[in-house]
Amino acid sequence: MYGAVALKHVLRFALASIILQQTFVPEAASAESGSAFSHDLLDTVLRKYVDAQGQVDYAGIARDRQDLDAYVDSIARVSLDSHPHRFETRLHELAYWINAYNGLVLHSVVDAYPITSVADLGGLDGFFQIRPHILGGDSLSLDRVENEIIRTRYGDARIHFAGNCGAVSCPALDRRAYVGKDLIDHLERQTRRFAADDQHLEWRSPTLHVSKLLEWYRQDFTGPDRSDPQLIAFLRRYVPEDLAPVLEQVQHIQFFDYDWALNDQALQKAGAERNGASER
To answer: How confident is the model at residue 279 (pLDDT cuts 50, 70, 90)?
Structure first.
C-alpha cells in the first residue's frame, strides 16, 4: 500500500464523487441482498492470473476480465457501510476492505494496460489519493480505504502484508482472496511470507535492511515509542527460525528504496531476458 502520505489527506475529490454517485445504481432488492458477501469472483481471478511469486498476468486479465469487472461491480453496490448485515463479524468486514483494495488496484491497472507503473496513472498521488472508486455507493480513494478505514478501524499491522499496491516492492499478492473465517491464519501466513523474502528483509551484518513499509508505517508495528527495538520485536515473531538469532545482533536498520515498477509477469520476464542477454 502507498505509505508516503499515509497520515495526510489534503487532496479532495468532491466533484468526482458527485458525478459518480449520480450515475450509481443501488443494489436491487433480491433474495440475495441479505446473504453473506462473496469474494469468489476475485478468488477466481487471483487463482488464474497471479503466480507463486505474487506477479500478475495483467495481459491475461485484460483478455478475460469479466470476473474482475463483475467483482468491482459487486463492491460498488455493497460495502460494510451500505449493507452491514452482509458481514457477520469484524473479520468478514476486514476481509472485504482488503479484497476491495486489491481488486480496485488490479482493475485500475487493467483498465489502462499496458503500463509500467501505477505512477503512470496520474502519478502516485493521483493514483492513490485522487482517483475515485465506488464502494457501497460511496466514492473513496485507495488512500482513504487504507488509512481511514483499514488502519483506523481495525488496527492490525499485518494488513500491510495483505494489501497490494501493484508495485514490485509491495508484499506479494496472494493467489487467494481473503475470507472472514480464516482471515487470522491468512494474515499470519502473509506476514511470515513477507519476513522470509530477502526482497523485503535482509541481514548484512551489522545492518538489517527492511522494506520501506516498515518506515512509512513504523508506529503500526512498534506502538507509540517507534523504537528500533520494538520494530525488531515485531519482526522476531515472523522471521524464519534461522534468522531470529541474528536479530539480536542488529546495530542499524536501513530501509530499501521502494521500486514502483508494476508487478507484471510480462515486465519481469522481459527484464530477466535482458539481464540474461547482457550476461552472455
So the answer is: low
Task: Residue 17: name the closest of 123, 147, 137 by CA.
Answer: 137
CA distance 276 to 269: 10
Cα–Cα distances (Å) from 184 to 4, 69, 95, 101, 228, in that order, read 27, 28, 10, 18, 26
> Nearest 5°: CA angle at 110, between 107 and 113?
150
Phi and psi at 186, nearest 5°, equal -65, -45
Question: How does 36-65 read in b/e, with b if 16+ C-beta sit within 10 Å?
Answer: ebebebbbebbeebbeeebbbbbeebbeeb
Q: Report the run of H or E that residue 202 belongs to, with start and end.
A: strand 201-204
Contact by Cβ (8 Å): 183, 189: no
85-111: per-residue pLDDT in tens? Answer: 999 999 999 999 999 999 999 999 999
Sheet of strand 207-210, all strands in order from the earlier edge strand to the far edge: 201-204, 207-210, 252-255
